[in-house]
Design brief:
Ribosomal Protein S5, domain 2, globular, binds adenosine-5'-triphosphate, alpha+beta, Alpha-Beta Plaits, 2 domains
Length: 287
């Protein structure tokens, strides 16, 4: 078998509190993460002279700055071999949208290479390689909804998420995560409570405190995010929030029919707003 095809899902942040800024510039956060059923497809072709990346999205770099390329390079370094792999990424997940597409692609490459090379690394060792690529990458190896702390890499299983239907709205422009953190005013963060004290047992109890500290920055520049959030709440979403640094917004619905109805209304809202939004109905991937 000279090829492997690996589905590479998006994630959403159901809660994101910025706790503080470390001396090295990284922000410490507490976030509740779940993968969702919106997938890129990562294909690996083996026995190649070097690492290469080919991505269907013209805006995604194909050089060493691609996170999938970095993952492969770190994997081979950790194995102390000079090998190659051709990586093809069929992009479905909107880019720079707060949905973790690049990190997910990197995790897919690590999983694929570990399988191909006969599982030389344990789950924990693969997570350590993943963390060198980026703070969000270990989560995509974790395979559970999780609360992440630290810079996002200290993961704890979150077992109480209901199987929500998710209306995902991506407003069609990119937002740089760096830019959002650079413009964040820690004095104005509004997520007063955090998940630590609620002790994660009961989703119905934490539902009321779900918020995203990064919204203050992204919404100020792109007020359409607030319009989409309000639209989703008016349509009966239990929760509507921006994911990560945005601009994607999700609404969580208990009922599939209600979510489907919401999709129709959001399509009408898009027409009125003359937006170029991607709108999808997906599910949480809980295990
Ligand atoms: P972040 O992880 O920074 O929060 P995001 O989830 O909002 O990012 P991504 O789709 O991962 O968004 O893209 C962020 C940036 O990473 C893009 O601008 C892109 O140039 C770069 N990038 C590197 N590798 C990839 C990849 N495999 N897929 C998508 N973007 C990538």
């Amino acid at each position: 078998m000279n090829e492997l095809v690996i589905p590479s899902p998006a994630k959403i942040n159901l809660f994101l509190k910025v706790v503080g800024r470390r001396p090295d510039g990284y922000h410490e956060i507490i976030t509740l993460l779940s993968r969702v059923s919106l997938f890129d497809t990562v294909s690996l072709s083996f026995d190649q002279p070097s690492i290469s990346v080919d991505c269907s999205h013209p805006g995604v770099p194909e050089d060493r700055s691609n996170l999938a390329h970095q993952a492969a390079s770190l994997f081979f370094n950790a194995l102390s071999i000079r090998d190659g792999v051709a990586i093809f990424i069929d992009k479905v997940i909107p880019v720079a949208a707060g949905l973790g597409g690049g990190s997910s692609n990197a995790a897919a490459v690590l999983m694929g290479l570990n399988q191909r090379y006969g599982f030389p690394f344990s789950d924990g060792e693969l997570m350590e390689i993943a963390l060198k690529v980026g703070a969000d990458v270990p989560f995509f190896l974790f395979k559970h909804a999780a609360v992440a702390r630290g810079i996002g890499d200290d993961l704890e299983v979150y077992g109480d998420l209901p199987p929500f239907f998710v209306v995902l709205v991506c407003p069609g422009f990119e937002v740089s995560t760096d830019w959002v953190y650079r413009n964040l005013n820690l004095g104005l963060t509004n997520c007063e409570k955090n998940l630590k004290n609620c002790h994660l047992k009961d989703f119905s109890k934490i539902k009321g405190i779900l918020c995203n500290d990064l919204e203050q920055v992204t919404i100020e520049k792109f007020p359409v995010i607030k319009t989409i959030k309000r639209g989703l709440l008016d349509l009966g979403a239990e929760i509507a929030l921006m994911s990560g640094s945005g601009p994607s917004v999700f609404g969580l619905f208990k009922d599939a029919q209600q979510a489907a109805k919401a999709i129709h209304s959001i399509i009408r809202l898009r027409r009125r707003q003359k937006g170029r939004w991607d709108i999808s109905l997906v599910e949480l991937l809980l295990s």
